[in-house]
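User: Please predict the structure of the protein below. I'd like the answer in structure-token form so I can feed it into my own downstream comparison script.

Assistant: Understood. Taking the following sequence of 484 residues as input:
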Amino acid sequence: MEATTPGPLAAGLLEREDVRRALAEHDFASTFALIKKYSGLSQNRIASACHLTPGKVSAIINGQQQVTSFDVICRISDGLRIPGRLLGLAPRDWETRPGQEDALPQMEGERPSTEDEVPWRPDATVDLAVKLTRSDLVMDRRAATRALAGAAITGTTLLDPLEGWLQPAGAAARPRRRGRLGPREVEELEFTARAFRAWDHKYGGGLRRKAVLGQLSEVAAHLDEHQTPQVEQRLYQVMAQLAGTAATMAWDTGFQRRAQNYYLLALRASHAGGDMVLGANVLAGMARQMLYRDQPRDALELIRLAQDGARHVAGPRVRAMLHTREAWAYAAMGRTAAFRRTTDQAAEALTDAKPGEEPHWITYFDEAELAGTTGGRLLDLARHNPKQHAEAAATEIRHALAKRGLEAGRSHALDRIGLAQCRFLLGDVRGAVEETHRAVDAARATRSSRVRAQLGDLYPYTVGNSAARPVREARDRIRDLLST
């Protein structure tokens, strides 16, 4: 092992042929046994280094459990300082940047603000936008590493301050400088916000995140001037849309806390702009983040807040979308009957949708999106009861794939991954392998960390001592993509 990346393993251990073979085959029973034998590490020491329980390590060594999670493989690599190439991974951060960054200062704007710190006033919203974009636009690699470690807040810390969204916006002192924006300039900003949103929906990832932040910073500067009331209202709505896109891009890049901060900014901007429907959409995005973080009760509270605020102004597509988020939370809580009830409500609301009657940002929610979302939730249920739910999940996902096609980008890739899991759960190995190859092809066309995370969830289905050659080949393709 290189001197610049010291670890707990004995010098020369990783040069042994038996160790290298065990690592290449992901045979962690042999790997851990060899580490115990030649490095003198106890099971407790291995467990601590890899963030596993001692019981888990014992079960792996005894052959009672296999390591199939891509995330766990990465933790083993990082904890024991095993170079990524020996495990089929890309070079790990510590291989090229050996110094640890435990003492990094917290980024400005990284800690979510409480209601007392950022009151529900338009001027406070502008100040928050300035702080967030300033810190993000100058983010270097050290700051980015720190931001990646930031976990989204949950529970009352998140939920209680959001009650202010239901109240009228507080009064604010007028800016001193006179603004000169007119309707045409605002239309250009609205068009740009819409274009960024469409690009993110198609490709995912954070490739254009800095461009979105730059535009968001410009809008904040315009709002720091004295605009006409009509221009000011539209600018806040543009800010909300840009902040929402910045949130999804940050999330797609792995910055969970940053994403949450931009969601909070988007909610405050929609509030300042008097757009309760857009605010409800932001809350739905926050709920989806909570669902991905295994916090269904928080998600349900966020959706109920959105429904309360937009009850009398939301159109059928927005109502349908909110019902699907509600159904998602129920599915995550194992409440199958409530899931079916709210899914039916979503389908019923969608039948009333008519072209051109709702904001552009909700037009994506159509029959295909409903089918894809429903299929994904049925897949969640199928993991616990494949016989009852797997075929229904596959049917819904196939319907979504047929309706929205390749242009959906990130959603298309997620559908492909979900369908592959359905085939594995149904015992259709041949069909599962075919769908896995399609899923990998679709995932390569996106930059979304959410897609990669879902692909990592597919990986365990391809692992096993009795896996046939086609399954192993599919597994290798997943591993190659996740390692790049």
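That's the full token string. The chain has 23 helices and no strands.
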